[in-house]
Amino acid sequence: FPLFDLGHFKANDIVTVSFNFPQNKQISFDQPQFYALDQTAFENATTKLKKSSVSSKVNGNKIYFDYKISKNRSLLITLPYDQGWSAKVNGKKIAITKFQEGFMKVNLKKGKGQIVL
């Protein structure tokens, strides 16, 4: 599903969003969903992750993450969460959970390994 950046807003701001389809007399679409990202929490988590060693590469329809961490952590993946993804760490299946209602997260135990999505 496409994501649109509606900008940055402060808590309790009221935002009105309008959809216009001037070339269409009739349209149909699923109920739109809106996601908020706590920018401060995201930046704090990103800072913590930068202190760990994580690298990534893409090959075909798979994404590989090599990591080395000194304590249990979560890896935040800034791709839209979708139930079609699956993950394995060192060959063993692990759960992917939603992060901030729109991205993906996998929980990792300390040590080193490889994640394959």
In terms of topology, how is this protein built?
Elements: H1 39-50, E1 53-59, E2 62-69, E3 73-80, E4 87-89, E5 92-94, E6 97-99, E7 103-108, E8 111-116
Antiparallel strand pairs: 1-2, 2-8, 3-7, 4-5, 4-8, 6-7
Concise synopsis of the structure shown:
With 117 residues, this protein is mainly beta. Helix content is 10%, strand content 38%.
Task: Considering the chains and any ligands shown, give keywords for the structure.
3-stranded antiparallel sheet, 5-stranded antiparallel sheet, 10% helix, mainly beta, 117 residues
Give the % helix: 10-25%
Overall structural class, as computed from helix and strand content, comes to: mainly beta
- Describe the main β-sheet briefly: 5 strands, antiparallel
Record the strand order, biggest sheet: 1-2-8-4-5
Order of helices and strands: HEEEEEEEE
* Rg, nearest Å: 18 Å
Mean pLDDT across the residues is: 87
Beta strand count: 8
Characterise the protein shown here.
- The protein is mainly beta.
- The longest helix has 12 residues.
- It starts with 38 loop residues before the first helix and ends with a strand.
- It has one helix and eight strands; from the N terminus they run αββββββββ.
- The chain has a five-stranded antiparallel beta sheet with strand order 1-2-8-4-5, with no helix packed on it. Strands 3-7-6 form a three-stranded antiparallel beta sheet.
